[in-house]
Amino acid sequence: MEKNYNILNLGCAHCGGKIEEAIRKLDGIEEAVLNFPLRKIKIKGEITDALLEEINRIADKIEAGVIITSDEHTNNEHEHEHSHDHCHCEHHHGYKSEKKVINKDITLFITGIVIFIIAIISENILHFRFAVFLFIAAYLLIGFNVLKATVKNILKGNFFEENFLMTIATIGAFILGEYSEAVGVVLFFKIGELFENYAVAKSRKAITDVAALKVEEATVLRDDRYVRINSDEIKIGDILLIKTGERIAADGVMLEGDSRLDTSAVNGEPVPLTIRKGDKLMSGCINLADTFSMKATAAASESMISRITQAVEEATSQKPNIDRFITRFSKIYTPVVIIIAVLTALLGSIFTGNSQKWIYSALTFLVISCPCALVLSVPLAYFSGIGAASKKGILFKGGNSLEALGKVRTVIFDKTGTLTSGIFTITDIQVCDTYNENELLRICGSCEQISTHPVAESITSYCKNSGIELSQPQSSGELAGKGVYAILGNKSVLCGNEKLMSEKNISIPHMSEITLGSVAYVSVDNKIIGRIVVSDSIKRTSELAVSQLKQMGLHIVMLTGDKADNADAVGNSIGIDEIISGLMPDEKLAELNRIREKSGAVMFIGDGINDAPVLAGADVGGAMQSGSDIALEAADAVFMNSEPTAVVSAKKIADKTLRISYQNIIFALGIKALVLILGILGYANMWLAVFADSGVAMLLILNSIRTLKFKKE
């Protein structure tokens, strides 16, 4: 059984990773996946009350005050999504409100800063001999939570965490007479946490804004009258009334009325969408004009906005490979640095006799040793990337997908429904003999009524919309892959492609050349009376998307099952580099593997049922929201506005996220390595050390959330 649990009072990403790993090792647990920014953990296994108690005991030991509780056991009073202090979130008896906790911390912090300033003035200007007591008071006020968490963790046997390191280092500085440095270290440590809390809260808001789109109540027809019900009670087939300014609670079809929808929250499209009777509607959109009624085609829990929320939340819980590397690295890093610090103090004191210098160097080591900034900043970059993408109507199903897209050098498109609209329409009519266009359409449309082929459906739909009255044939049948035959008005009629006419030995007269589309020839009593050309229109942003992707240095390929003439006409008109047509689904996958062997990681974008194997087989599969459910399920990313330019935005966000992650790793390790070397040589003081820890943390975190500022196209 798989279930989500809330983690209350979790402040440290590093400790969160330890909790996740410890839970995985318990008997009865199959998997545990931490979603640090949302403070949730997904646990798979048979969770008994006793096992949950053991999980909480372990979590509290790793980080004092942490509580893990199931969603249904967490009420509003319990949910402290405090962006709390790093590794020292308190467990308040009776669950005091978040506001009280924050006010208390701020009061202590500000009072401590004031006393610290007075202490510096007293020592350096007034030469007050008892200024040390002011420094101690400032230290206790500013570092109250650090000291409290250290004591709790020591009692639980947990030494390898940053509060312990910070406490030892600052107390050591006091002993060595470096009073201002001791208080300064803990002060900047706290300031760094404030930046971290701000960054996590800001990136989390980008995700929770999506969840906020869910509609709690809806107006539904019950017993011939409209009543307000909880949206979770909406069933398929229910009739909903959508008033002006109201958000749609479930996916459905418009029954009557005309209106306009704000779809920006769902697909990122800023232009309102005009809707009429019969149009499909997505949950999460806002009615901007007249009240209308609709029929639900999905329950609220299965509608688009619920699927978006689930996809985004799951995405933030999946760790990219870089994130996993940082987690593994941190397990070794901190203990090794502590051992080096101890050896530095002992050996330096023994060989030089200057114990104060080498103890000070060792304390400097301790200040910079905790890797929490690095552990948090990398997943925060991916979390911000996922948030930025969701704002543009792009749903990544995991941090791995975002990372993989950043490495993609070839983008492969399907044609129909991806680069083209997938909506076929009549683009050319040519008649022969004595027939006119309406007669040709009436004969062809009457015969094509039995077929579900897109070409047939587009012809019959065109006839009905044009007011052409169709007749029922005396008899009819379909010839797979060729067309239809019928007896209409005691005449033998054939409607189909060139192959069908050739098989029936019907000669086709000379007609104007066709560059794009599918042709339906119509014969009456074995004589061609005309032809109808049906084409799939190219999407308005296809050419722009291909051009922008090529400017980014990407190779663009089209894989399609359509015939060569149509594929070449579409591909060449929008600038595709390589066009491969006439492919069956298994052949598409084989071609994708061939391209990957040649050029590396590939992304495939499609929308149909037949695209599912290729979407699953690609390094990154992208599906248009207008596509089939199977394609959406198989894809790693879903584009809510179904426009090819969304692929460009997704690639830019992925590239930026990957670039920021590497920047964070290189900068953090480089600065820490430099300060460690200076510390060993005795040249690094506490101020430099605190920059290497809290200062670097601030810079990395601010760098990580730059992804949220992704420019609008």
Beta-strand level of the residues, as a percent range?
A: 15-25%
**Major beta sheet summary:** 7 strands, mixed
Could you name the CATH class of the domain at 399-419 and 539-635?
Alpha Beta
Shape: elongated
Percent range of helical residues: 40-55%
Q: Which radius of gyration do the C-alpha atoms yield? A: 33 Å
Poorly predicted regions are 73-99
> CATH superfamily assignment of the domain at 399-419 and 539-635?
HAD superfamily/HAD-like
How many helices?
23
Report how far apart the termini are. 43 Å
Kindly report the spatial arrangement of strands forming the biggest sheet: 14-26-25-24-15-22-23
CATH topology of the domain at 399-419 and 539-635: Rossmann fold
Arithmetic mean pLDDT: 79
State the secondary-structure class.
Answer: alpha+beta
How many strands?
26
Q: Could you say what the CATH architecture of the domain at 399-419 and 539-635 is?
A: 3-Layer(aba) Sandwich
Protein architecture, described:
The chain contains 23 helices and 26 strands. Helix 1 packs antiparallel against helix 2 (49-62), helix 7 packs parallel to helix 23 (686-704) and helix 13 crosses helix 22 (645-680). By secondary structure, it is of the alpha+beta class. 49% of the residues lie in helices and 19% in strands. Among the domains are: 2-92, 2-Layer Sandwich (Alpha-Beta Plaits), CATH 3.30.70; 399-419 and 539-635, 3-Layer(aba) Sandwich (Rossmann fold), CATH 3.40.50.1000; 422-537, Calcium-transporting ATPase, cytoplasmic domain N (3-Layer(aba) Sandwich). It is elongated and about 115 Å long. The protein has a seven-stranded mixed sheet with strand order 14-26-25-24-15-22-23, with helices on both faces. A six-stranded antiparallel sheet has the order 6-5-7-13-8-11, with no helix packed on it. A six-stranded antiparallel sheet has the order 16-21-20-19-18-17. The chain starts with a strand and ends in a 9-residue tail after the last helix.
